Amino acid sequence: MSGKTKGHKVITVESKSHYQKLIEDAGQTHVLIEFYATWCAPCRIIGVRLEELAHEYADKLVILKIDVDDLEELAVEFDVSSMPTFAIVKNKVIVEKFVGSNPDKVESTLVKYCGKPDATAATATASASPAKSGAGSSKAVAEAANGKSKK
């Protein structure tokens, strides 16, 4: 796998050729793709958790974001009709696809295909991120995405 693909961040895909190169570079590594739109509130909410997951799964996973308005051709290719839509790709093959900003679903799907995150990275993310301590927890993120909030 190329050093350009492997990392600790979510990669925003800039073009179809950029996407093809990233998928090629990923090789045997699983790729989580989020199809999103800048105007999609649930997409923005789950984006925070995706950044954390990029750190936690740095050695096991590549995370890509594709703006459906900018890269409509890829959205059509993946039959995206709602946002966010997630796809897991391995060896250029879609192995799973699902819709919704449910962080627990994203996490359980990653565990299914990639195993549990690296304990060291997960601990570092938890201690460095206020999201793990309450307001941005998976449950709170899901509630916010569904219009519920704790007060």
UniProtKB/TrEMBL annotation:
<feature type="domain" description="Thioredoxin">
    <location>
        <begin position="1"/>
        <end position="116"/>
    </location>
</feature>
<protein>
    <submittedName>
        <fullName>Thioredoxin-2</fullName>
    </submittedName>
</protein>
<dbReference type="InterPro" id="IPR036249">
    <property type="entry name" value="Thioredoxin-like_sf"/>
</dbReference>
<dbReference type="InterPro" id="IPR013766">
    <property type="entry name" value="Thioredoxin_domain"/>
</dbReference>
<feature type="compositionally biased region" description="Low complexity">
    <location>
        <begin position="125"/>
        <end position="145"/>
    </location>
</feature>
<feature type="region of interest" description="Disordered">
    <location>
        <begin position="125"/>
        <end position="151"/>
    </location>
</feature>
<dbReference type="InterPro" id="IPR017937">
    <property type="entry name" value="Thioredoxin_CS"/>
</dbReference>
<keyword id="KW-1015">Disulfide bond</keyword>
<dbReference type="Pfam" id="PF00085">
    <property type="entry name" value="Thioredoxin"/>
</dbReference>
